[in-house]
Amino acid sequence: MPLILIAAAAMAVFAVGYALYGRFAARVLAPDDTRPTPAVTVNDGQDFVPTETGYLLAQHFSAIAAAGPIVGPILACLAFGWLPALLWIVCGAILIGAVHDYASLLGSVRHGARSIADIVRHHLGRKAYLAFLAFLWLSLVYVIIAFTDVTAGTFVAAGTGGAVATASILYLTLGVAMGVCLKKGMPLKFATPLFVGPVGLAIWLSPGVPLTLGVEHPRQAWSLLILAYCFVASLVPIWILLQPRGCLGGWFLYGVLGGAVLGLLFGWGRFTAEYPAFLGWTSDRGPLFPVLFVTIACGACSGFHGMVCSGTTSKQVGKESHCRPVGYGAMLLEGLVAVIALATVMFLGRGQAAGGPDLIYAKGIAAFVSALGIPLSFALIFANLAFATFVYDTLDVATRLGRHIVSELLGWQRPWTKWAATALTVGVPAAYFLVVPSTVQLAGKTQPAWQAVWTLFGTSNQLLGGLTLLVLSVWLWRERRNALLTFLPACFLLFVTAWSLFRFMPPLLAALQGGEWGTPALNGTMALLFLLLGAFLALRSALTVLKGTR
Predict the structure, then answer these.
(1) What pLDDT, in 10s, does the model give residues 489-499?
(2) Residue 64 in contact with residue 306, Cβ under 8 Å?
């Protein structure tokens, strides 16, 4: 079957889902444009800035669409086949992920653009608030570790790594230049084409000036340099980097999606589904239930999105009606990213799908784009930069959110404390990269270090999504609205994530009985902590409703 037919069917279902289920969600959430949003009432020129919908959508999409909707679908497809992955991506994005993002964004706007953690404090009390903050920060640490290591891997890949590193630095420089021009008064409609075009030039020039570090452990060095970038990016005003780079990255990622879809169309006969649709109910990653649902996290639902929605995006919403296209719409775009990532495996035979997800994705996108007549060498760097761009835009947002959470959790309010909070947020991942080897043994194979934390990252991310939906259900219940919109997805996510977390316990139990305290035992310790925090928050939600305190 031609891949374009599968991609077109997925896009059609997403469009119908936005029109029908998105409209149903809007009726339940009831956005009201007569209410001034916090972006309008505060409008401090720093964090609270009313932003045009298209600009905000591009920025928000760029912030949420990290490596998750690429790596997760590829890993799941390799393990179980493409059909289970495709069904979870499409159904999960429409019924769970997009509802989560839409409700998180509008819920934050209704609560003064406060974070999800503040909404927890408002509805569940201070103890639940502190537990939720701790859970959020630990989840963000896993996001930063996983995505930093994945990005560093693209910078040291044989053949293209140095060029991708050069293109990435040029891309970030263009983002800063765009921010300065916008601040000086350049209209967005002129700035966007002016700076999007040179991204292609940066890709074209980068093979001639590849950037290599020339150190003994380049992957580790790149990881630390990326964390240094995150430190700086999380402290500067949003207008100089987060907003313009987010917009620039959003349009670039639109181009990646458009180029891939057009390539699939023009390569109608070349790109067909060769990989098996279904490989079985178990794999070396574990059983399909629950592993599929926590391996594909961001492509179907992501708790991290709720932090972005309530941490940065809600402060820029000009009207409540904008929450649907930005929140619900961006999640469906991320679902499309996941479908395209899935397609990069599907056109390969089972014996051809070799290498890590980053390599498979880059080669697949390059093959699709080259069907448009673009040279394969250019297309390969284009695809690798796209992969890095997905990650960059999430890493600095995650670090910024981590800084806010540490400040809230510890009550740090003085000007210098934002530096300390940021240092703590990037310091834990930095310690991880200094201590943990760059490769680990998993299922008898040598794998990159991020593979050791990916399943736990996905599980914690989905658990965060379930808890966020649970808290939003309490809010809707108190507003006397149909809380089933968020409660039913919350129950599903809490079930599969609890199941997944229990699967991390055996290595921890073995270590407690005198066994080795390696990465599996550390993951088991973190899984136990996530499980306890999640159970406490779920219990507080249940008690709030049972007490009937509206």
Answers:
(1) 999 999 999 99
(2) no
